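Q: Could you write out the predicted structure for this multi-component system? I'm mainly interested in how the pieces pack against one another.
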Amino acid sequence: MAGAEAIPRLKTEKLTLAFQGKPVLKGIDLTVRAGEFLGLIGPNGAGKTTLLKCLNGIYPSQGKIWLQGVDLKNLTEKEIAVRIGVMHQNVQVTFPFPAGEVVLMGRYPHLKRLQRESGQDYRIARESMEYTDTLQFAQRPISELSGGERQRVLFAKVLAQEPEIILLDEPTASLDIRHQEQIFQYAGVLAAQGKTVIAAVHDLKIAARYCTRLVLLKDGEILADGVPEGVLTSENVSEAYGVRALVYRNAMTGLMDVYLPVPKQAAKRIRLHVIGGGGSGSDIMRSLVEHGYEVSAGVLSEEDSDFKCAQFFGIDCVSAPPFSGISEAVLEHNVRKIQKAQLTVLGNIYFGESNLRNLEAALQAPRLILVEDDFPQARDFTNGKALALYRTLRKRARVTTSAGLITTVEEVLAQGDRVDGEKEADAAEVFGSERAVLLQT
Amino acid sequence: MLAEGDKRRVMQNIKAHSHEKKVIVLLVLGLLLVVVVATALGAVTVPLNKTVEIILKDLGVVKFEQAPFSASQEAIIFFVRFPRVVVAVLVGAALALAGAVMQGMFRNPLADPGIIGISSGASLGAVLAIAWGLTAKSLYFMPLLATAGAFMAALVIYGLSARGGKFSVLTLVLAGIAVSTFIGALTSLTLTFLNEYQVREYLFWSVGSLSGRRWEHVRLVALPVLISMLMLMLFARDLNVLLLGEEEAQSVGLNPAKTRKWLLFFASVTTALAVSVSGHIAFVGLIVPHVMRLLVGPDHRVLLPASALAGALFLVICDLVARIVVMPLEIEVGIVTSLLGAPYFLFLLYRAKKEGVSL
């Protein structure tokens, strides 16, 4: 047992391949052991599929490949097929073979030319189909099955080969989410049972969730190799894919997730301030950042999901420790940010004693937009105190909904340019008196 | 979900082939019937029972104290018509089998030995055998050179359309046309240097014909054709796996390039041997496997024998039609198959276009 452990299932050394003089793989060194579920990730053209096709000899590569210590070059096609099974992407079966026949073809490497399939071959094929829940399709022509059904039948075919190593090339490219997860679940169970699974995966979330190890490829080289948490970092993903990517744990599921900022508009030198809390600000901040605005935010409790969101986007944020309320100093700080911003957006927040001072700060905004998705009355937990303040704000603010926010922001900014002086004067008058009143209370 | 007993039955039924077996049995019975009828009919019609008796007697199966038929009947049946029918059986089976193999290995229902240049290559080989006076030395030179020519033509065309393990059917068809035309020109060129007698010897090559085929033709090709056909049938499972596609096939342990070369070799040999006694008979290798695929499905373990049987049946019937339709004159069997085959081929093209199938 110890001896078998010492020999890796699969080992490559300086694996190199070039297509028409263009290098696709540049010296891949990889050692994969029993029980590993290895996900190959990386951008298009990184060499994921090419690497898989080298591993079972479809592409003739330079360098060494050992299967359980045996050089791949010394094995016949059938000997390789007994050890490695491959599920290719987008297999088009145009001939109407019954699905069961296709699965039985997985027994091909185990049979001699004139040997007929034995009872055992049928049993293995049947069990493979049961495992992937496709036995009921056994007699239906594979050309008439849906994409998900066909993929599961082909997976059963790979299982019928009884290989120690299973290669999956984008196994879920054409599948809906349910069947995607299903294929990865099957593969995960097989790895747990001691098989070796290597899958080229596009979906980083799925790769992080099911694979025990990830290998990140870029331009035919290994950029990172290790446990998913170690490989999937914002830095690695950003470098490999050539975009600014943010890797985070989804608050709902605790699973790894990736966010790519989609710049919908070019960066503007317009600064906006967001007052949020309790999750009401996240969507606003993301949306404004994506539209190219410079965003500041506050005051947010350091426990709040909005605070994490602000950090995530690198937003300049005024924060307060949890359950401490907003101190005088923090309020001043926030007011300065608000006054520096051309426009302030107040999210659909719930009003409590602890965030009353955020409403007060909003009064200092040169221009104000209120996002109202719910009636303010329903959001008040201060016995009308906050509501009174909110009504004052409402008198000179533009009111909109989350959906209309960006349009409203653009309109308000445009108006501001046009009637600048007049409005500024007006506002100063109103602000002057009310500010005095409010700061006294 | 299925019950335990049902599960077992489900997988066994995949291999039951009850419908397919029925088709094969019907084809065998049909072939026997047609062989007898075709032997009996002609300018001198011999009753069916007498025909059977003559065939059985001369094959040494039964003995008669006193023959219930006349010597002239026996001569017509056993030395004129029966060998011709046997040649038709062999040629028809060989062409249809080779066609079925070609369609399978190229995953294309329009592939056919003629289209990929095998027939023209065989013709060139045959005309060279005549031109070099080899036919006078031994009967075997003709089929040998025809086979060599066929295989060379197929190899050139396959080589042009396959690069680095990948190959394109469109290139195959186009290269087939170009190479066939080129070889055709070489054949014509050779013909201009032949004398009148040699030209006449070549003539049956230009139009497929079974007229005047005797036992020596049967002896010439029967054994090699049967062996070559058997070899092709041994590849039935490989052909099934090839249908899944190149990389899929390699992943279950089949070397597609190597397998294709063997298939191409035996398909060329089979076709060339057939063509060396019959001349170029068009469309048998195209229509017969296609119809059989509709009847028995794509599994080559059934499709190949079914195609061979149906090809034999088809050519015997076509030859019968060619003999009796304008009696006492006789038309070439190649004309009959072309008249039936060309419209069907066009129908296939039309349907392929309608279904958006690309070549």
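A: Regarding packing and overall arrangement: Residues 71-105 of chain B form the longest helix (35 residues).
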